[in-house]
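Entry for the shared binder. Reason: the reviewer on the internal report wants the predicted structure included alongside the sequence.
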Amino acid sequence: MTHDAEIASLLSAITASRPQSTQRTKLLRSLLENVVTLAEQDPDTLDLKIAETALAELVEAFEVFAPYRAKPKVTIFGSARTASDHPLYSLTKQFAAAMAAIDWMIITGAGPGIMAAGIEGAGRENSFGVNIRLPFEQGANEFIASDVKLVEMRYFFTRKVALTKESKAFAIFPGGYGTLDECFELLTLLQTGKAVPAPVVLIDTPDGHYWKDWLEFITGSVISEGYVSALDHRFFTLATDVEDAQRAITSFYRNYHSVRMVGPRLVLRMHKGPNPVQLDEIRSRFSHFVTEGSIEEIDATGPERSSNDEVDLARIAFNFDRRSYGDIRDLITTINTWSD
């Protein structure tokens, strides 16, 4: 790096009024170094535009969401073509209203159809809109237009980050290629551990067949052929009414709270820890994905304490094989029975 001194000087100026931890300082330095490296490569102008726009869009999204980090959020995916008089539109409105009533916020695209229904149901004050600029669609829908919680984006990949990063749950209604793309990418992130565990609810009307047909394809042509594990079925739930959909989300967090990797160990945090019998049970049932040692009940780790990361919660930890994420869902289900 030929500009080390300049980068160090700029980093010092940035952090002078706002001291940073060692980890954050390293991350900021890496960001600056990557900008300089990109400039030194003399890239194509289009490459520069992509990099600049992507970073700018993420920065804007982070800023919009920052004041609401403490509020739980559910992302709604679904078709932009759903008419306002369609039963799915009404079902989406009812679901969004029900989640807002228990103090959850809604994240969805800012377009028409299911996106508009979600924002209309939850209310502008409880909603975020993450819009994608398309040449054949108008701007944001009337329910979120000009709101401070509206983010406009050019790229689908940055929009997906904004739609998924902040959410603790996902509700997916029937839709086209875009909806299926969002659904499959979300399931892939959960399957590979690139997203933290979260409930995914596939919602349709009682007489609808969209997700039933989808599940038949997944079971008959994907799972049966060994393209994914049968355990991956645990990453989603089907629902045909608001109550079941809401229950699938809230029950996921009945006792389980969150997860964090600390070195090779997976730390699962919860409101109520296991008693000795329960601890022995999970050691017996889930030892197959523990690479070394056993499942242990622990206090907050050093990294968690240094970042004040949910230090008062109960937690268990184990050396994880980083493959068996379907089994982690089963473990979370077991953890949630401890609150009974």
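Summary line for the report: DSSP finds twelve helices and eleven strands in the chain.
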